[in-house]
Each structure stands twice: as structure tokens, then as C-alpha cells.
């Protein structure tokens, strides 16, 4: 049985995530399912990118495939992560109605974290991450993607860490994502080729 302290911490975390979510969130309370790399993932991204360009026009300053599904050979949750850069993510009337008109659903609004907005797609399992032009987090996502694409050692370390973390039971999928922060920063801080899978246990606190 969980202690009262554990229950309080869970309640605090639930409230924290609910505060930035649109709609009721339900705890995951399970392990994370990772899939082998699927060569069809780039096609799914390209289809979404074409749709976004047709809907948003010049409002879409940049559309990029990011996250693990954008890295050939890497295991991933089978959800296509997409980076959408707009002039001002906080100015929702400029782009949200157009997205909603074709079936995208706004699920997360985080004014205090780079004005991040997250949408789910109309017919494909995606996370559409929307940021304003010039936001450092968008550039960090691209830098990490490119590092994993180009550096076998970094990609192996990240895959090893993901496998270890995915075996745990997570109340929220976001908690799993947050647990990868340390290894992501380690990879970004190290020179290319200097990271090794041997440090994965340290990255997940084992």
C-alpha cells in the first residue's frame, strides 16, 4: 500500500499535469511500449507535413520530424513527433482554428514552458509540438535529433537508457519522458563519439 506521502506526491503531480492539459488526463500506470524502428515513419511524417503546410501556409515557418521516430534504427514509442514553428505560439487565433478545422486537437498549453502547445492529429498517432520562432527548446530538439542520427555511440546509449526506463511502471508517460532528461543532456554535452552504452545505468540512477 502506498504511503500517505506517496499519495500526496502523486496527487501533486496529477494536478501539475492537469493544469496544462486540455481535457481530463488519466494515469498511465503501466510500462512503456517501445517498437522497433519502422521505415514507414518518415512517410507518415511527410504526409502530416504536407497537410500542415496546406492548412497553415506561411504561418508554418518550419516543420521538422523530431523525436525517436526521426532517427533511423532507434527504438521508439510508435508516435510521430513533429516540430512546428510559428511566429508566435501564444497567438492562438493565428493558427489554432485552422488546425482544428482539419481535425487537430489542442491537448496541452504550457505558457510558462516556452509557450509550448501540443496537438494530436486527425488520423495518425502524432505529437505536434508547437513553438514560437527563435525558441531555444526547438533548436535543442533539432540538435539532439541530428546528434543521434550522426553518432552511433550516442544513439546506442539513448536506446539502452530507453529500454531500461521503459521496463518501469510509470503513472504518467510524461514522467518517463522527464526521466530521460539526464541522458539527453549528457549526450548533448559530450563530444561526438565520446558517449558509450556503459553509462546508461548511471543515466537512469542504477
List the helices and strands and how they pair.
Elements: H1 4-20, H2 41-56, E1 62-66, E2 80-86, H3 96-101, E3 105-110, E4 116-120, E5 126-132, H4 136-150, H5 152-166, H6 173-179, H7 181-189, H8 200-203
Parallel strand pairs: 2-5
Antiparallel strand pairs: 1-2, 3-4, 4-5
Helix pairs in contact: 4-5
- What is the CATH topology? Beta Polymerase, domain 2
Main sheet overview: 5 strands, mixed
* Total separate domains: 1
Question: Helix count?
Answer: 8
Regarding quaternary structure, what we see is single chain
Keywords:
single chain, 206 residues, alpha+beta, Beta Polymerase, domain 2, 5-stranded mixed β-sheet, globular
Description of the structure:
- The chain has helices at 4-20, 41-56, 96-101, 136-150, 152-166, 173-179, 181-189, 200-203, and strands at residues 62-66, 80-86, 105-110, 116-120, 126-132.
- The protein is globular.
- With 206 residues, the chain is of the alpha+beta class.
- The chain starts with a helix and ends with a helix.
- A 5-stranded mixed sheet has the order 1-2-5-4-3, with helices on both faces.
- It has a single domain (6-203), classed as 2-Layer Sandwich (Beta Polymerase, domain 2), CATH 3.30.460.10.
- It has 8 helices and 5 strands, in the order H-H-E-E-H-E-E-E-H-H-H-H-H.
- Mean pLDDT is 93; it is low at 1-5.
Task: Summarize, please.
With 206 residues, the chain is an alpha+beta fold.
Amino acid at each position: 500500500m502506498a504511503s500517505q506521502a506517496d499519495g500526496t506526491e502523486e496527487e501533486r503531480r496529477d494536478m501539475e499535469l492537469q493544469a496544462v492539459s486540455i481535457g481530463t488526463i488519466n494515469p498511465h500506470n503501466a510500462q512503456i511500449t517501445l517498437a522497433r524502428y519502422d521505415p514507414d515513419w518518415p512517410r507518415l511524417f511527410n504526409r502530416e507535413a504536407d497537410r500542415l503546410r496546406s492548412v497553415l501556409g506561411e504561418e508554418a515557418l518550419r516543420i521538422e520530424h523530431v523525436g525517436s521516430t526521426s532517427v533511423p534504427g532507434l527504438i521508439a514509442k510508435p508516435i510521430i513527433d513533429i516540430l512546428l514553428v510559428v511566429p508566435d505560439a501564444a497567438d492562438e487565433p493565428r493558427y489554432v482554428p485552422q488546425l482544428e478545422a482539419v481535425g487537430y486537437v489542442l491537448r496541452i498549453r504550457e505558457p510558462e514552458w516556452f509557450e509550448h502547445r501540443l496537438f494530436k492529429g486527425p488520423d495518425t498517432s502524432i505529437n505536434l509540438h508547437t513553438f514560437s520562432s527563435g525558441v531555444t527548446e526547438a533548436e535543442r530538439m533539432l540538435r539532439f535529433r541530428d546528434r543521434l542520427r550522426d553518432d552511433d555511440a550516442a544513439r546506442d546509449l539513448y536506446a539502452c537508457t530507453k529500454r531500461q526506463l521503459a521496463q518501469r511502471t510509470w503513472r504518467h508517460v510524461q514522467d518517463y519522458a522527464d526521466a530521460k532528461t539526464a541522458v539527453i543532456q549528457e549526450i548533448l554535452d559530450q563530444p561526438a563519439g565520446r558517449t558509450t552504452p556503459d553509462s546508461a545505468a548511471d543515466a537512469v540512477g542504477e
